[in-house]
Amino acid sequence: MKTADFYYDLPKELIAQDPLEDRSSSRLMVLDKTTGQTQHRVFSEIVDLLDPADCLVINNTKVIPARLLGNKAGTGAAIEILLLKRLSDDTWETLVKPGKKCKPGTVVSFGDGVLTGEILEVGEEGNRIVRFSYEGIFEEILDRLGQMPLPPYITHPLQDKGRYQTVYAKYDGSAAAPTAGLHFTPELLERIREKGTGIAQITLHVGLGTFRPVKVEDVTQHHMHSEYYNVDEEAASLINERKAAGGRIICVGTTSCRTLETAAAEDGTMQAKSGWTDIFIYPGYRFKITDALITNFHLPESTLLMLVSALAGRDHILAAYEEAVRERYRFFSFGDAMFIK
Fold this sequence. Notes:
By secondary structure, this protein is of the alpha/beta class. The chain has helices spanning 138-145, 186-195, 233-244, 254-263, 303-312, 314-326; strands at residues 27-31, 38-42, 55-59, 61-63, 67-72, 78-86, 91-97, 107-110, 115-122, 128-134, 171-174, 198-204, 227-231, 249-252, 273-277, 292-296, 337-340.
């Protein structure tokens, strides 16, 4: 299986640069994973596509303002640090640009010295391990100095930090948003609850893998980085109860899907579990518990496109994406949604 098998042509003007004013007003393509047939709806109509017996699984991770812009001590050279994974209280695994200016021992200053970071070592694939020094509470300083880590294909400045955050974001830790969840509003979630559909909350802190393109020709040789996840007893019980009653387990986003497929037992039952996952889902994978998926439109040749192809079939997905391009859907993080049922 080749990475090139997951390429499609996308006009740049279809990459959404700004979130819609009303989160739930985005378009929704409904894809039948068995037949490949599609429908065109509005996201707020997702309620009509859910059954009372179903269970939505949402990822309640919260994006931290992980992008720090600073200057190298001594030379004043501009340095950008992206926080990826907290290793201890003040030590982080990071992406640094430009990396060649940041050898071990380099000190970078942020906010006129309110925060400083020392490069301790160069880690796997060029990531830098950085130890930060400051007075006060790190999270408060980060909230003041940091920017939301928008993907590189979004070039417009974000006016409101909260728009790159789901309305149910709870636990700090992500370097990117679980973007399928951006379409939900509190009112829409309430309508879903009123219908009787269950909503289970799990956590996966979105990390480095989101930023890594697939660089190998053979898909199976790609290495996914690990991300922390947690499924508590309440979520596991609700998922098992709905599954046993014949309801569908509908993951909101690829992060929820990867979490469930990591934590589920081989017999398809859900377990309360936490840890690190580097699961890579591509065509040929046998899903243990995921029945359906709400997701956005993903980058060509990405691991996310491979995951949705595993669920719905590569041919169905690529045909649906071609249709989305023809219909002028909005793509990627701030774009429209797809419901694979």
